[in-house]
Automatic annotation (TrEMBL), chain A:
This is DNA-binding protein. Pfam families: OB_ChsH2_C, zf-ChsH2. The lineage of its organism: Bacteria, Bacillati, Bacillota, Bacilli, Bacillales. Residues 19-54 form the ChsH2 rubredoxin-like zinc ribbon domain. It comes from the Bacteria. Residues 56-120 form the ChsH2 C-terminal OB-fold domain. InterPro entries: ChsH2_C, ChsH2_Znr, NA-bd_OB-fold, Thioester_dehydratase-like.
TrEMBL record, chain B:
GO terms for molecular function: acyltransferase activity, transferring groups other than amino-acyl groups. Residues 240-383 form the Thiolase C-terminal domain. SUPFAM superfamilies: Thiolase-like (SSF53901). Gene3D superfamilies: 3.40.47.10. Pfam families: Thiolase_C_1. This is Thiolase family protein. PANTHER family: ACETYL-COA C-ACETYLTRANSFERASE, NON-SPECIFIC LIPID-TRANSFER PROTEIN-LIKE 2.
Amino acid sequence: MTNISFPEPTITAVSKPFWDKIAEKQFFLQRCDDCAQWVFYPRAHCPHCFGSNLTWKEASGKGKVKSWSIVHRAGHPAWQERTPYAVGIVELAEGPTLLTHLLIGEQDLSYQLPVEISFQSLNERLLPFFQKKGD
Amino acid sequence: MAKRPKGAIIGIGELQPVRYSEGKTTLGLIAESVQLALADAGITKDEIDGLLVGPQVGETPQHVPATVSEYLGISPTMSNTVDLGGATGAGMVWRAAAAIEAGMCETVVCVLANKNEKGQVPRSPNRNPIREFDVPFGASGANTSYALLKREHMEVYGSKQEDFARIAYWSRKNAQKNPKAIFYDKPVELEDILQSPMISDPLRLLEIVMPCAGGAAVIVTSEEKAKQTKNNAVYLKGAGEKITHRAVSQAPTVDQLPFAYSIPHALKQAEIDGKDLDLLSLYDCYTSVVAVQLESIGICKPGEFGDFVRSHTFGHDGDYPLNTHGGQLGFGQADLAGGMSHVIEAVVQLRGEGEERQIPDAKYALVTGNGATLSETTALVLGGEQ
Ligand SMILES: [Zn+2]
């Protein structure tokens, strides 16, 4: 590995609680008190009803693969050294979708595959990666 | 439905795309493009009272319309930056017509250009949610985002690699009739596309545009003024636009992407059917983007573009002429100006000036633009008669 480091999240005042929980290996998302929908990525207002009563609540960390790609040419030099690897969009059980790193081999990936969260350390920071459910 | 926008394109100017531009500035390329468009329209810069420009991030990050006005020596009564990614070109034409109808101005120059130097550094530091929630996981750049959309289409509908490759094949084939195209004299076979290096599986190299430098401008004016100009004017017959998301992770499902709204809206305003179109000038940064659009025009059903591209031809004498200039996959994608190339080709064809690539009896063209990851979509129907 060269000394080029992986790009870190650019944390804001609004998103900080999310990352603080991740650092404790916990997966918290915002949930709207007014319309009861879950919200990701973290926001100051609910994008569903535009209310402002969002509460951080623990989420299941479970979901299904909506799509994936095996990256051969990475957009960042630090990630290029890890190619090929899988990224994907996971539809969380609570509803929102997120982009994540998938710790799943190419041959095991499939549409709607059940997955669960797996906290992984990168640059000494924990990140919510996902793996095959039950692995 | 909103009323039909009125306006006409009376002038076009386009620089030949080049892989790298040495010794050029973006402002200089803007001026060159505008010069060509004014000469084509047969008007002087003093007749321009409206200006629409793209976000020239880096060289001129702020006050872009003022900087460009000063550089060109014009003093418009309406000016704006249009920031719709690849939909900027098509989006400008509609905005120009709207500004004219609102009485803000009468003759608008819409211009986009960019330089591309070897070793050019990224244009600006990103602090948006993509940088926070996508990039740290190994997904940076458009290739991976578009690969994710392509995979979803393949999984939901069973579309095949070969179906997508056919779209790139036709772009490159059509480019062989356009000496200005960056891939002129460089034809490819279907097999070359299917064997090209995997970039972000399922996306291969020859399904992706090559970045280049260039510029393009069009002049939009009122229908009344258009009648007094030297060229056959091309009229705006309908328009549609839809913006739904920014990051691919926040995109709706593949059957709900925003072209499913913007294209039918434009066709409806023009009071025509997808089958009435003589030219498809469709934004093609990636093959999958064309696939989604074919399914939104109504000429094939959602999920069935594969059958459609196998059973039709898309060349100059084909039953569905598609991106007759070569599209961005064959002609080149000069950043945002790449989107304007679809507008310009439609004007060329509707004016009957396509020379050896002229299609027969071009009456209606569909022009589209697409920004971010199928996020910002604009569709225009252009016609040769008022
Ligand atoms: Zn809400």
